Amino acid sequence: MSETNNPSRDKLVSDLKVVVADAEELLKLTAGQAGEKLTDVRSRLGDRLAVAKERIADAEAALIDRSKKAARATDDYVHDHPWQSVGVAAGVAFLLGLLAGRR
User: Fold this and answer.
1) Residues contacting 34, CB < 8 A, separation 6+
2) Rounded to whole angstroms, how far apart are CA atoms 77 and 73?
3) Which residues lie below 8 Å from residue 74, measured CB to CB, with a gap of 6+?
4) What is the spatial distance between Cα 17 and Cα 11, in angstroms, rounded to a whole number?
């Protein structure tokens, strides 16, 4: 269940989206520039951007799917074991209260 709320993975997806947006903007800004090498680089960059966008979308969809599965599993567990869930929640709340009281 630790994969469901992975801030570093969320940050990575967010950062990659920013990089893709910046690269797309760079392609637009250099659209009027001429030159064989620049045209070749723009073409390769465009192809790589398309692949990157597809992979980011796939990773994001997989992350959402795993999060939903974990939420469903947690919900099912709580419904199947309500008193154990209440006990665990009470224990965690007690420990958090102890930790907060020490500060």
Assistant:
1) none
2) 6
3) 1
4) 10
Average pLDDT over residues 48-75: 88
C-alpha span between 7 and 89 (Å, rounded): 23
Nearest to residue 30, comparing CAs of 45, 15, 49, 19? 45
Task: Kindly report, residue by residue over 10-50, the tens digit of the pLDDT.
Answer: 777 787 888 888 888 887 877 777 777 777 777 888 888 88
Cα–Cα distance measured from residue 84 to residue 91, given in angstroms and rounded to the nearest whole number: 10
Nearest to 6 by CA among 78, 75, 62, 85: 62
Identify the weakest region by mean pLDDT among 33-47, 58-72, 79-93: 33-47
